[in-house]
Amino acid sequence: MYPEKSRSNWWYIVPILFSLIGGIIAYFAIRRDDPKKAKNCLYLGLILTGIGIVINVFLAGFEPILDNGVNI
Length: 72
Prior knowledge:
Elements: H1 13-30, H2 35-60, H3 63-66
Helix pairs in contact: 1-2
């Protein structure tokens, strides 16, 4: 196939900042040069998206508790 060359570790910043979309962008940008790092970026984007969803669902369960009943 293509000769592999190592890409910078700075590519991990893209999925950290943009979650799943960033993981997809990083994957398609470096998939031919460094396929292992490309897959890791995609997995990192998926994991961070999953963590965000879990946190949002968890915090949504506390919404009635956080409401102090003050109507303005």
